[in-house]
Fold these 3 entries.
Entry 1:
Amino acid sequence: MTQYFSLEFITMLTGFLLIIVGIWGMISQKNLIKIVIGFSLFDTGLNIVIVSLSHIKNSTAPIIDKAVDVSQAASKIADPVPQALVLTSIVIGLGVTALMLAYVLRLYREKKSLDINSYTDLKW
Amino acid sequence: MSILLAIFLGLVILVLAGTAIYHKNTKVAIIAAGAVGLFASVLYILLAAPDVALTEASIGSGLSTIIFFYVLNKIRQTND
Amino acid sequence: MNIRNVANLFVLLFLIWLLLTGTFELTSLVLGVTIAGLFALNFGKNSSVFGKFRLTPKVFVYSLIYLFVIAWEIVKSNIDVALRVINPKLPINPGIVKIKTRLKSPMGRMILANSITLTPGTLTIDIKDDELYIHWIDVKTLDAEKASQEILGKFEKLLEVIYG
Amino acid sequence: MIKKGILLLILVGFFAVISSLIINFTGNEALNPMAKHYAENGPSEVGAANLVTAVVVTYRGLDTLGEITILFIAAAIIGFFLKAHNADADRPSRLRKTSEILETASTLLVPTIFMLGAYIFINGHLTPGGGFQGGAVMASGVMMIILARPTSKFNHKLLSVLESVSGVAFVILGVLGVVLASGFLNNSFLPLGELGSILSAGAIPIIYVSIGIKVGSELTGILDSLKEHQNEI
Amino acid sequence: MEIRETVGAAVTLLGSVFIFLGGLGIVRMPDLFNRIQAGTKASTLGTILSLLGLAIMNEAWIWKLLVIIFFVLITNPISSNVISRAAHFRGTRMTNKTVADLLSDKNKKISEE
Amino acid sequence: MVNTILIMAGVLMALGILLALFRFILGPDVTDRAIAFDVMTVSSISVIALIAYFAGRVIYLDVALVYGLLSFLSVVVIGRYIERGL
C-alpha cells in the first residue's frame, strides 16, 4: 500500500482520471464547444501522465546552476527527454485546439447549430 | 508534504474538470478548463519540470482562453 | 517622436532586465541595452504617456513618500475589510459614488485609479473625463466634494507633483 | 440512456485495461541509460546548463523542426478556413469602447511583456524557458494590444516576413551544423564558452531565438484569423 | 541568522492569513462588487506579503521576488477594474444594502437624452 | 521551527484556494466565477514561491513571474467578452 503513496503515482492517477473525464466529455456531450473543451482536458491529462513518468524519486529540475553541480547531475536530476516532448506537445495542443475551433465555427456558419445531432449528413 | 499538496491539487483539478464538462453555461466551462491548466502548471513544478510549467503557464494564462472566447464572440455575432 | 518618452521607457525596461538577470556581466548588459533600446524605440515613438515624468530629486523623494503612503493605506484598509468579513453580522454599507480629480496626464490618472482599486473598501468602476465612479464598501457621504476629500485626499497631492 | 450506458461501459473497459499499468507503476528509482548519457555528457557536449533545452534544440532538434511545421500548417489551415468569410463581415456593429485605464495600462504593460518574452528567449539555455515559451509570451503581448485597442490593424507583411525569415534561419543554422560541425543542428560550430554564462552553448541561443520568433508569429497569425474585424462606434 | 529566517517565515504566515481571509471574503460577501473588494484585494496583499517574507529569508532571491511583486501590483487592479466595469454595464444585481448607484443614474440620463 | 511555520502558511493558502473553488462552483454568474479564478491564480503564485523555497531552486520563480504578469489577461478577456468589446 505504501508504494501508492508516492508523488509519481498520485500525479499519474490524476492524469489518467483527467484523460477519462476528457474522453467522457468528448463522447457524451452534444455541444460542439464542449467537445473541444473535452479534447483540451484530454490533452492536459496526457501531458501530466508523461511528465509523471519523468520524475525520479527526490529528483530536482534538470537545470545545472549553483544548486546542482555538473559532477553529481546524473544522480539528482529528473529525466529531461519526456519533459522536452511535453514542452512541444503543449504548443501543438494549442494549435490543434484552435484548428478544431475553426472547424466548429465553419460548421456553425453552415447550419446555424452547435448541436452535434444536427450534423447527420454522413450518418448511416 | 509535497504528496499532500499533490493530492489536494489532483482533487481540485478533477473537480474543475467535472465542472468544465457538466456545466450548462459554455463560458463557465471555458473558464474551468483554463483553471485546470493553471493547477496542472503548479503540479508540473511539483514534479520538477519548470520548463513544462512555464509553457503551460504562458499558453494557459491567456491564449487558450482567448481563442475560445473569440469563437464564442463570432457565433454570437452571427446570430445578431 | 518624443525623446523623453523613449528615454523613460528605456530606463524602465533596462531596470526590469537588470532585476530579471541579476548579474552585471558585460555581455548581459550589452544585450540588455540593445533589447531595451529596440523595444523602447518601437513602442515609445508613437505615444506620449511616459513623457511627463522627469526624474528630479524632488520627484524621487515624493515617489518614495507616495510608496509609503499607499503601502500604509493598503495595510490599514485591508485590516478594516478583514474585520468586516470576520464579523458575523457583515456590517457593510455599499454604494457607488462619484468623485472628481484634477489630474490631467493619463499615466497619473491610471496610477490614481489603480491606487484606489488596490486599497480595499474602494474600487474604481469607470472613469469619464474628470469624474471617477467608485464602489465604496462603507458610504459615508454622497457629495462629490466630500467624497473626493475622503477617498483621494492623500494620493492626489503627491501625484500632482510627480506627474504634473 | 442506453447509449450513455454503453459509452460508460466502454470507458470502464478502457480503465480496466490500463488499470494494470497504473497499479504496477511504482515510480522510477534511477535514470534510464539514455537520459543518463544526456545528463553526464550534455553539459560538456552541448554546453547548455538547461538540459531540456539541449534535448529540444540539438539532440532532438529534428523533432522540433517537425513540430514547428505542424504548427505552421495548423495556422495556415485556420487562415484558409476563416479568411474566405471575412469579406461580408464589415457590416457596422456596436463595439463598446475600452476604458481609459486599460488603454493607458496597455502602453505600460505591452513593452514589459515583450521584455519578459525577450528575457525568456535569450536565457533559454540557462533558466527554464526558450523559444516556445517566449513565443507564447510575445503572442500574449500582441493579444494585450488587440484587447486594449480592438480596432488596431496588424502589419500582415511584417508578420509573414518574420515568419519566413525565422523559419529559413532555423534551417540554415541546422545546415551550418552539418557543414561546419558533425551533424544537423549541431551547435558546436560556435565556441561553447563557459557553462552558465550568457554567451555559452554555441549556437543554441540563436537557434532558440529563431524558433521563438517563428512560434510567436504563428500564434499571432492564429489570433489574427480568429479576430473579428469591426468598426468602433 | 535564525532571527531573520523566523521573521521572514512570520511575514509569510501573515500573508497566508490574508489569502485565507480573501477566500473567506469571496464566499461570504453578498454581491459581485463586494466580493471584489474583499477577495482580490486581500489575496493581492497576502501574495505580496508572502513573497516579501521569502525575500527576507534568502537575500539571493530578492530581485526576482521584487519583480514579481511589481508585476502583481500593476496587473491586478486592472483586471478588477475591467471585470467590475463589464458587470456594471451588464446590469449585475446589487445587494439590498446598497445605498446609492450614481453611475447607473448617469447612464440612464445619457440614454434618455 | 521555520519549516513548521511555512507548512502552516501553505495549509492556509490551500484553504484559501479551496474557498475560492467553492465560490467558483457556487457563483451565480460568470463574473463571480472570473473573480474566483483571479483569486485562485494570485494565491497560486505564492504557492509556487513556497514550492521554490522548499526545493531550494531560484529558477522555479520564473513560472511565478509569468503568472504574475500574464494571469490577468484571462480575466480581461472575460470582461471584454461580457461587455461586447471583443
Entry 2:
Amino acid sequence: MSVPLFRTAEKRTFTFPGWLRYILIGAIFLIAWQLYVSLSGVSQLLIASPLATLQALIADFANGQLPSAILVSLQNLAIGMGIGIVTGLILASLSTFSRFGRDLLTVLTAVFSPLPGIAILPLTMLWFGLSSSAIIFVVVFGSVWPISANTDTGFRTIGTTTRMVALNLGLTRLQTVRDIFLPAALPHILSGLRLAWAFGWRTVVGAEIVFGVAGSNGGLGWYINNARYFLNPPAIFAGLVVISLLGVLLDTLFQFIEQQTIVKWGMKQAQ
Amino acid sequence: MSVPLFRTAEKRTFTFPGWLRYILIGAIFLIAWQLYVSLSGVSQLLIASPLATLQALIADFANGQLPSAILVSLQNLAIGMGIGIVTGLILASLSTFSRFGRDLLTVLTAVFSPLPGIAILPLTMLWFGLSSSAIIFVVVFGSVWPISANTDTGFRTIGTTTRMVALNLGLTRLQTVRDIFLPAALPHILSGLRLAWAFGWRTVVGAEIVFGVAGSNGGLGWYINNARYFLNPPAIFAGLVVISLLGVLLDTLFQFIEQQTIVKWGMKQAQ
Amino acid sequence: GSSSNAPTSFTIVYQPGLGAATFIILKNQKTLEKQFPDTKIQWDIVNSGSAVREAVISNQGQLGTLGVPPFLVGWDRGMDWRVLLATSRSDSWLIAINPRFKTLKDFGPNDKIGVVAPDAQQAIVLRKAAQQQLGNAHALDRNLVAIGSADGEQALLSGQIAAQLSGSPFQQREIAAGGHVVLHTKDVFGPVGAGLTVLSQSFYNQYPSFSKTVYQDLVNESTYVANHHTEAAQALAADKASGGGGSVAQFKSLLDDTSLVFEKTPSGLVAYATFMKSIGLISKVPGSANDLELPTVSGTGN
Amino acid sequence: MGQPDKEPIVQLSHVSLAYQHGHAQSATILEDVTLSIQRGEKFMIIGPSGCGKTTLIKAIGGFLKARQGEVTVNGVPVKKPGPDRAFVFQDFEQLFAWRTVLDNIVYALQVTKHLPRRQAIDKASFYLELVDVAAAADKYPHMLSGGMKQRAALARALALEPDILLMDEPFGALDAITRNQLQLELNTIWRRTGVTIVLVTHSIQEAVFLGHHVLVLSSSPARVLEIVDTSQAEDLDSPAFTAHSLHLQSLLVRQDKDLIREQVVPLSIVQ
Amino acid sequence: MGQPDKEPIVQLSHVSLAYQHGHAQSATILEDVTLSIQRGEKFMIIGPSGCGKTTLIKAIGGFLKARQGEVTVNGVPVKKPGPDRAFVFQDFEQLFAWRTVLDNIVYALQVTKHLPRRQAIDKASFYLELVDVAAAADKYPHMLSGGMKQRAALARALALEPDILLMDEPFGALDAITRNQLQLELNTIWRRTGVTIVLVTHSIQEAVFLGHHVLVLSSSPARVLEIVDTSQAEDLDSPAFTAHSLHLQSLLVRQDKDLIREQVVPLSIVQ
Ligand SMILES: Nc1ncnc2c1ncn2[C@@H]1O[C@H](COP(=O)(O)OP(=O)(O)OP(=O)(O)O)[C@@H](O)[C@H]1O
Ligand SMILES: Nc1ncnc2c1ncn2[C@@H]1O[C@H](COP(=O)(O)OP(=O)(O)OP(=O)(O)O)[C@@H](O)[C@H]1O
Ligand SMILES: [Mg+2]
Ligand SMILES: [Mg+2]
C-alpha cells in the first residue's frame, strides 16, 4: 500500500481500531485507580474506588437525580455556548473588517478574558437575578473569548492568495466571512470551539459549586457540591465521571466534524 | 504609497496610533461605567464607581495589601503556567510522533479538560497539602489543555511541503519539533498561550476564592473574596481592575512577540 | 388569607443544612401559596451569607437566612434590613484530631485552623477566644484558613489542617472519625449567636400583614420541626437540593443532637457587634438589640 | 487574427510601485511605468525573474495601490479588485481547499453572475472540459497535481467571462502539449469574446505567438524597456516571428549580461 | 559531456503507486514502472500534466511507499527520505517562512553536514550567488517572487551536495534567460561533482538538452511509454537533437490525441 510516510509508516503494519485503543487506555486507567484506592490505604472518605463510583452512578441514574442534573447543566451550557459562539464569530468578523472592531476586540479581550467568571458572578446576579440566566451569562462570558480569539487568529492567518481570490470575485463582506474566512479558518475555529466547550463546562460546574444557585433544579455542579457537603465521595466521583463522559462524547463529535471537513479538504493531517 | 488593499485601504488615510485608540476606548468605557453607577440608582453596595475603585486601588497599594496579593498570585501563576507550557508542548509533540502518544493525548484531553479545577481541588489538597502547590497544580491543570490542544492543531495543520522538506533534511525528531514544527505552528501556539494565560488567571483567582489560604500570603482571589465577605465593592472592583490591567500588559507583550515573529514572517496579517 | 396587601412576587433565599428544615417543610406544605394565591412564591438556595446579602441588596430576594456576623456587616454598611425572627441556635465545635491540641495555646504558627469564611460566626468566635485565652484577638489570624465545611472535613481527616471549626453535620462526623473538641462556641460568647431570618425594613413597612403572616408561618413550622424530628428528617432526606442524599436515620440523629436547637428569639446581636467593632470589622454598635429587630421580635432578643 | 479596437481599456501613467510592511516600505519595485492597453488586445509582459511582473499585474488587478501615478481601467482609477478583471495567480494555492474543483467554479459563477446552480454547473463543466480537468471535477484541490490546479484556476477565470483576463504565468506548470493546447483554446476564446488579455509569461515565444504587444521590463528596479508591437507576427514560420523573438531575446539578454558566463545557447530552442 | 558510470544507483521494479486517504485509497496513479538510473547520469521525466511525474519522483525521494514493487537506492530499499536525495519541490512554499533565505540554506547545512556557522554561511552565499538570489539573502521568503523562491530552493538542494538531486520542475517559474543560465549552471555542477540528477520537466527540449535518458510517461494511469537514450544529443544543432525532440513529441502527442482539436503548432517553437 502506498501510504504517505509523514509519520512512522514502517510501524503501521497493524493497529487496533481507534475506539479499541481508547478503551484500552481507559481500562488501564481504571485499573490503576482501583489499585491506588485499594492498596494505598487512602481514606475512602476522600477518594472513591471505581466500583463504588459505578454503584453511585447506577443508583443516581435510576432515581432520576443524575439525569435531571445533567439536563439542567447541559441546557445552561447549550444556551450559553450558542450565544457565545455567535457573539465570538461576530466579534472576530468585525475585528477583521473595521479598525474600530479590531480595537474593540483587542480591548475587550484584554480586559475581560482574564476575569474569572466566579469573580463576576455577584455582578451577574445583580443583572440577571437568582436564575439560570446568571449562570448562562457567565458561560457566555467564558466561551466567547476562546472563540473570538481563535477565530481572529484563524482569519488573520489565511493565506494572501486566498484573500486575493476573494477580493477578485468582488465578494461582499458577508460573503467573504461566510464563504471564505469561516471555512479557511475552520481548523482554528474548531480548536476554539473545543476549548470553549471545555471551559464552558468548567464555568457551569464551577458556578454551580461556588455560588450554588439551585432552586429545585440544580445541575451537575450542585450535585457534586451536595455530595461533598454530605461527604459522599462515590457521588462526587460519579459526577466527575459523568462530566468526563460527556466530554469524551463531544470529543468524538468534534473528531467526526474534523474528519468530514478539514481533514477531507487536506487542511489538517488525519488523527 | 503602495499598500496591499486587503483591508479597506481607502479609509486608511488617517488613523490614530494604536495606544491612543485603546485609551480612547478605555475612556469611553470608564465614563459609561461612571454614568451607569451615578444615574441608574443601582445600590453602591453592589457596584462601585470608577472613582471609588480608584480610591480603593490607591489606598490598598499604599498599605501594601495589593502589591503583596499580586505577587502571590503572579508567583503561583508563573510556576503553574511554566509547568503547563512545557507539559503541553511535550504532550503535543508525543502526540505527533507516536500513535500511543496521540491516543493518550486524545483520551487525557477528553477526560480531563472538561473537569473544573475547583471540582478537583479536594483531591489536589489530598495530594499536595494545603499549600500553594495545590493551587499551582490546578493552574497546571487549567493551562495544559489549551496549550496542548492548540499546539496539536498547529502541528497537524502544517503544510505537506514543509513536512516533506523536514523529512528530506533527515532531521531527528527533536530537531523537527524544535526547528520546524514549533515555528511553523507558532500562530496556533501563541493563540493557545494567550488562552492559557487567561484561563490560568481564572484558575488562580478562582482557586484562591474557593480555597483561600489566608493569613499573610493570600493572593488576588483572596483579596477579592475578602472584600466580598466584608461588603466592600470598591475593593472588589480594585481587584478586578488589577487583574484586567495585568491582562492588558500581557496582551501588549503577546502583540510584540507576534510582530517580531509571525507577522514578520508573513504568516499572519498585521494587527 | 388576605391577598390585597401582598406583593406580586416573594423570593425566599435560604442556605442548605439542618437549619433549612423549617423552610423545606414550609415549602413542601405550600402554606404561603395557599395563603397568598396571587403572590408568586419562589425558593432559592445559595450557599453563603454573602450570597444571601447580595440577593437581598439587588432585590432578587426578599427574605433571607444567614448568620449574625454577615448580617451585621450588611447592617453596618447601610442595608436597611432587620431580623424577622431567628431560625436556630447552634453550638459549633473546634475539633482537632491530633491529641496534642488541647487548648488554643497548643497551636503553633504552622497549625492551620479551618473556618468556612472570614466573616463567618466561627471566625469571629475564634478571635474572641484568642482574645480571652491568648490575650490578643489577632493571635490566630495567621492560622486561619477559609475552607468550605466539606473540604475542611477532608483536610482535617487527611492532616492538612490541624483543626476545624464548622458545624453540623460535619463536627459530628469528625468526632466519629476520632476527633476531639478543643473549644465550644457557647463557652466563648455564651449560648448565643443564631441563624437569622431577615427582611428589609421597607418591605415590612409596605406589607406589614403579609410579613406578619410569614413570621407566624415560620414560627409554626419551627415549633413543628422542634417537636417532630422524624418528619423533619424525612423532609430533609427527600429534598435533594438542601438535604443532599443523607438518610432519614442520619438526619434524625443530627436533629436529636442538642448542638442545634430551633430557637425563634435572636441572640448575641449586641455581643457580636461589640466585639466586631472592637477588632475593626464593623464601624458601629447598635444601641440595643431592638435597633436590629422588626416588630415581630421587638424587644425579645439580646 | 485581427487588430484590437483602438480604444484604451487599461492605462498606467507614471506608476511607481513598492511594498509596504507595517510602517516600513520596501525599495521601489517598479518605476515610472507608462503604458496603455487597447480594448480587446492581448498584452504580454515579460522580464527577468523577480523584476516585478507579478507586482505590475497585481496593480492592474487592484491588489496594490500605486505609490505614484495612476492606474485606470475604462478611464476610472482602480480602487479595488473586481470580477470584471478575472485574475489567475502564479501560485498553486488559489483554489478554495474546502470546495471541489467543480464547486470552486460554480461558487464563483453564483456569486459574481448570480447564475442558478444548474446553469452554473453546466458552464463550469464546460470550462473544465476545455482545460481537460473534467475528470477531477469532484476532487478536492489538495488531490490535484500542480498543473491541474493551475488549469482549474484558469477555467474559473475563463468561466467568469470578464472584461479583462489577468494571468500571471498561467501555463508555467504545464507540459508542452497541454500548454500549446491551452494557448490555442485561449485564442479561440479571445476570438469569440473579444476579451482583453494581460498575460505574464517567461516564454518569449509564447509572448510573440499570443500577443499583440509585448512589454519588456528591465531587471529591478524595473522600468519599461520597450513595448514591442507583435500583432503582425502570428505565423510561426514568418520572418517577423523570428525577428521579434530575436529582438526580445536581445533585450532580455542585455539585462542579464553579467549572468551569461559560459556558452550562449540559442534560446529559441532550449527552454 | 561524458557517459555516466555503468552502475545503477536508483532502481524501480514493477512499482505501482496510489494515494491513501484514511482508509480509502485512490485509483492507481502509476502502474508497473520498472527502470534503473545509473550513478552520475542525468535522468529526465516527462509526461502529460497530471499523469504522475510528481508522484513518481516523490516515491524515489521516499515520501511515498510503493503499493507494489520496490524502489531501491544504492541497492537498499527506500524506507524514508534523507538528505542524500536532496529534493526540490514543485510548489513555492518549500522555504521555511521563519528563516531568511540565507538562513534557510545555512540551517540545512548545519543540520545535515554539521558545518560550523561561518562555513555554512560561506557555502550558502556561494550557491545563492550561483542562482542569482544573493541580493535577497536577508529577506524572508514571503517577500520573494515566485521564481526567486524556486531558485532559492534550488540553491538549498545544491548546497547539500547530495548523491542524488531530485528536482520537480525546478525551472518551471523562470524566464527563458534565467532558466537557460541555470541549466548551464546545473551542467557545470554535474560535471564537477558527478551527482546523479533526476529531473521532472514539462519541456521536451530541456529534457533532451540536459538528459542522458528521458522517461516518457503515458497519461493516467501512467505507465512507462519509453525510456529514450539522449546521451548523444547534446549539441543543439545536431540532427540527433532534433530527431529526439520530434520523437518525444510524437510520443506525447499520441497520448493526447483527443486534446488536439485545431491546428498543430510546431512544439519546438511555441512553448
Ligand atoms: N494527495 C493526493 N491524493 C489523491 N490523488 C492525488 C494526490 N496528489 C495527486 N493526486 C493525483 O495523482 C495524479 C498524478 O498527480 P501528480 O502530481 O503526480 O502529477 P504530475 O505528473 O506531477 O502533474 P503536473 O505536471 O501537473 O505537476 C493526478 O491525477 C492527481 O489528481
Ligand atoms: N510582499 C513583498 N514584500 C516585499 N517585497 C516583495 C514582496 N513581493 C515581492 N517582492 C519583491 O518585489 C520584486 C518583484 O517581485 P515580483 O513577484 O513582482 O517578481 P516577478 O517579476 O513576478 O518574478 P517571477 O518571474 O519570479 O515571478 C522582487 O524583488 C521581490 O523580492
Ligand atoms: Mg511572478
Ligand atoms: Mg507535478
Entry 3:
Amino acid sequence: MKTAINLSNDSSVQAETNKNVKISVNNFNLFYGEKQALYDVSLDIYEKEVTALIGPSGCGKSTFLRSINRMNDLIDNVKISGDIIIDNENIYRTNDVIKLRTKVGMVFQKPNLFPMSIYDNVAYGPRMHGIKNKQELNQIVEESLRGAAIWDEVKDRLKTSALGLSGGQQQRVCIARAIAMKPEVILMDEPTSALDPISTLKVEELVGKMKKDYTIVIVTHNMQQAARVSDRTAFFLNGEVVEYDKTDTIFSVPKDKRTEDYITGRFG
Amino acid sequence: MSDSPIEKSNKRKYFLEKLSGRFFLFCALISVISLALIIGFVFFKGLTPFVADGYSFVDFIFGNDWVPSEDKFGVFPMIVASLYATIGSLIIGVPIGLFTAVFLAEIAPKPIAKILSPSVQLLAGIPSVLFGVFGLAVIVPFLQNNLGLPKGQSLIAVIIVLAIMMLPTIVTVSETAIRAVPKSYREGSLALGVSEIGTIFKVVIPAAKSGIMAAIVLSMGRAIGETMAVILVAGNSLIIPTSLTDSVRPLTTNIALEMGYAAGTHQEMLFATGIVLFSFILILNFVLAKISAKGGQ
Amino acid sequence: MNKIKDHLLRGILWFSSLLTIVILVTIIGYIFVKGYKLINFDFIFGDYSPTGGGGIWPMVVTTIYTIVISLLIATPIGIFAAVYLQEYAKQGRLVRIIRFATESLTGIPSIIYGLFGAVFFVATLNFGMSIIAASLTLTIIILPVVIRTTEEALKTVPQSYREGSLALGTTKLQTLLKVILPSAVPGILSGIILSMGRIIGESAAIFLTAGTVAALPEGIFSSARTLTVHSYLVTQESGDIELASAIGIVLIVIILVLNLTATYISKKLNKAD
Amino acid sequence: MNKIKKFSIYLIALAITVLLSACSGGANNSNSSSNDGYTLSISGSTSVGPLAEKLAEQYEQKEEINIEINQIGSSAGITNSINGVSEIGMSSRDLKEEEVASGLTETIIAYDGIVVVTHPSNKVDDLTIDEVKQIFTGKVTNWQELGGDDLEIVVVSREDGSGSRDAFQEIVGYSSGELIKNSIIASGNGNIKNTVATNKHAVGFISFEYVDDSVQPIKINGVEATPENVLNQTYGLSRPFLFVYKDENLSEEGQGFIDFILSSDGQQIVAEAGIIPLK
C-alpha cells in the first residue's frame, strides 16, 4: 500500500515538471432533461497519467467520463454547457464525433465483446476505418493483444468466439480492441467491477504499464484501486467535483471534510 | 497518416450517415403512406353513397335489413356478429394459447419444447382456407350431430375455427416475449422463496406483458380479418344472432361474399362495410395502445 | 393452500398445451389423411386441366412468384423501418404516427387489402389483375410483421454492443450493418418466416388482385392463381375436400421446408459467431 | 426539418418514376407476349367460368392464342366488359336495363338448368314452383308439411348479386327481401352442393353441371331436370349463359373464340360438360 503511494508520488513529481494538460474541462454542466447531473465541473487531465474518478454511486463520475468521448449523445434529451477541450479542440464544438472517438477509446464496466471471433473483435475498429490489408490487420491485432497482455493466452484461438473467454480475459480483449484504434486517451468505466480479484490485479498491472503510452481516465468504486493505479484523483459528490489533486495528497491529507469522510469509509 | 484523408473519409461517412438515416425514415414512412392510401381509397368509395347519393349513415349502421337488390343496406346484424365472433374466439383462444406459450417457455422439458416450438411455428403458416376446409368438413357436422341442430354453420363454429386459427400466433409471439424476460427476474423471485409457478404468474408474465399484448393484437387482427375460413362455416345468414347456434354473417364475410357480384351503390356499400370494420380496428388499436402505454409506466 | 393453487395452475398449463397440440395435430392429420392419395409427381408438376385430373404446377409457380416478389420488396423496407424506429428515431410525434400506422396495418382485414389492391394497383396504377398487383398488396400486408419482429429482434441486441462499437469511432451505419443486424438475424428470419406464412396463407387479397387464371404465368404482369386461392376455389366451386386437402399438404410441406431452412441458417450463423 | 421534407419529396418522386417505368415495362411485356399469340381476357360468372375454361382449353390447342379467364361473378364481369378491362364478360343472368343501355352486345352460348337439390335421404323429391317459393320465403319451415320427415328446413341460397340467384328468384317469383332471413348463404355452386350433401335438413339450388350423386335433384311440377326437358321447355328453371361485350372492343380473336363456341365442335364441348347446348 505504502509503496504504491510512493510510486505514484514519484511520477507525479515528474508530471509537475514535464507533463502537459491533455484534457481541459471548464465549467461543464450536464442535464438529463430537467435533471442536472453535473455541476460546473472544472479540471485538467494530464498527458500520460492515470486519473481516477471516485465517489459514491450516482455522483456523476460515469456521466462525466462518458462526456469525454460524447457517449452521452446516445441518450435522448441530454443537454450540456461548458467546455471540454482535448488538444486545443473543443469536443462539443466539432461535429466530427468519429474523429473524437477514434482518439478517445473506451473500456466499459462489463466486457462487451461482439459475438464474433477474438480476431474479428480486435480487428473490428481498424476495419471500420478502412484498413483492409490482411498483413497490416494481423500486425495490429497481435500488437494490440500484446499491449493488453493477453496475446499468450489467446494466440492459439484467435478464430474462436470471443464470448468463450473468461470475464477477465474478455475485459483485456476489450482493452486490446480499444488499443487497436491507436487512441491517445483511454476511458475506463469501472473496468474491474465485474471481475474476480486475480483478473482485477492483472488489469490493474496492465493499466500501470499502459500509462507510458496513453492518457487514462478511470472510474472506480474501489478506493484502494484508485490509490494503487492513479496519479491524480478527483472526488465527485452529487455531480460536483469536491476535490481534485494528486492521489497521494487526496489519500493522505484531503482538504475537504467530505473527501476525508468518504475515503475513511464514513459513507459511500 | 496525415489528417486530410481521414477527415475526408469521415466527411463521406457523415454524408452516408445522414443519407442512410433519411432512407430509413423514408422506409418507416411507407407504412404511413400505405395506411393513408388505403384509408383514402376505402373511405372515398365507402362514403360516396352517404355524401353524394343521400343515403342515411344512421340507417346504414343500425338498419337490420341488407337487401342490395332492393336498395336496403343495413349492417347492424353483421356488426353484432363480428363482435360476438371476435370476442368469443379471444375468450377461448387467448388463455389456451398463452398457457401453451408459458408451458413451452418455462415448464416443458427441453427436448419436448425443442420439438413443439418449431411445430407450432409451422402451424402459424398454415393457410386459413385449410382451417375453413377442416371446419366445414369436421366441426360443422360435429356440432350439428352432437347438438341436434338443423345446421352446423353457426356462431359457435366461427368462434371455434377462429380460436384454433389464432392459437399459433398467440403461442409463438408470447413464447418469444416470455423467453426474452431476463433470467435475473426469475432468480430474484425464486430467491425470495416464491414457487416456480408463482414466479411465472407474478413476475415473468407481467414482465412479458408488452409482447403478450402484441400477440393479442396480432391474433385479434387475424380473427377480425379472417374471411375465407369464416365464409365456409358461418352460414352467412342475415340475422342478429341471439344464440351461439344461430348462423351469422360477420362484416368481412359480407364484403367477400358479394364483392364479386356487386356494382354501383351495392359495391360502394361494401366499401362502407369496410369502413365500419376499419373503424372498429382503429378504435381497438387506439384502446390497446392506451392500455399498453399505461402498463408500461 | 398455495401448493394446491400451484398444482392447479401447473395442471392448467399442461392441459392447455396438450389441447393446443391435439387440435393442431388433428387438423394436420385430417388434411393428410384426406389428401395424401392424390399426391404424386404428376399432381405437383403436371399442368392444370380444367377438365379434371391435371396438376397444380401453374399454382405452385404463381405462389413462388408472389412470395419472392413481396419478400424482395417488403423485407428491406421492413427491416430499415424497424431500424429507424429502434435505432434512429427520437421519441416524438413522428414515431408515434409511424407506430400507429404500422399497428393499424396489422389489424386491417385482408379483404380490405384486397379491395384497396383492386382499386389502387389493379385499376389506378393500371397493372391489371396480375401477380405484381397481388405482390404489392401482399407487401403492405406483411410489412408490419417484418417491422414488428425486426424491432423485437433489435431490442434483444444488448445496448453494450452499440456502445462498444460507437466508442471505437464507428458510425451508426457501420455499427448497424456489422454488429447490430447480424446479432438480430435469427429474430429477423423468424419474422420473414411469419411473413411467408402470411403470403402463402393469403387468399382474399390475392383473389381480388391476381385473379383466378389457372395457367402458368408468363411474367409478373400475368393474371394467375396461387395454391391457396386454388384450394379455396376448389372447396367453393366443386366442394372437393380431398383435392383441397391435397393442395393443403403441398402448402404445409412448403412451409415445413421453409421453416427448416430458416432454422438451419440461423443455427449456422450462430455457430459462425 | 425542411431538408428532410425536400429529401422525402425527392425520394417519393424517385419511387413514382420507378413505378411508372415498371408500368411501361408491363405494357412492353404484354406487347411482347402478343408475339407468342394474342391474349384474350374474359371475366365474369362463376357458373359460366368452368365451361369457358373447358372451351378455352380446346381452342388454345387449335389457335395461337392465350385466353385468361377470371371467375369473379356476373356483375363484375359485365362491369369489366363495359369498362374495357376485359374484352368479354360472362353472365349467368340477363342484363339489367342500365347494362343494356351502356351499349353491350350479348351472345347466348348455352343454356343452363337450375336444379333444386336436397340431401339424398330426403323423402320429398317433387315440388311445385309454388312450394319452392314457400320454402325459400319461409312460409313452409318443416319437411313434414311437404310429406317428408319431421325435420326443420334449412334453406341454402346464393349471395345477393349472384347471377344464378337472380335468375332463380325471377323464375320462382320472389324477391331478395322475401328470402327467409336465417337461410345459409353460400358463395359458389360447389359450396351449396357440399352444404346440401352433408345436411339432411337442407335444400338449395345449383347449376346443372354440378349435379351428382351426392345430392338429390327435385322434380319441378313432376318434370325431371334433364337437358331434353329444358330444351322442350317443360322444365321451368332454366336460364341462358351469356357472353357480353362492346362491339368496338371485340377483337378478331375474340370473335373467333365466340364463333368456335357457337360451332358444332364448340357445342359438343358444351354438351360434354353437362351443360345444355343451343340446339
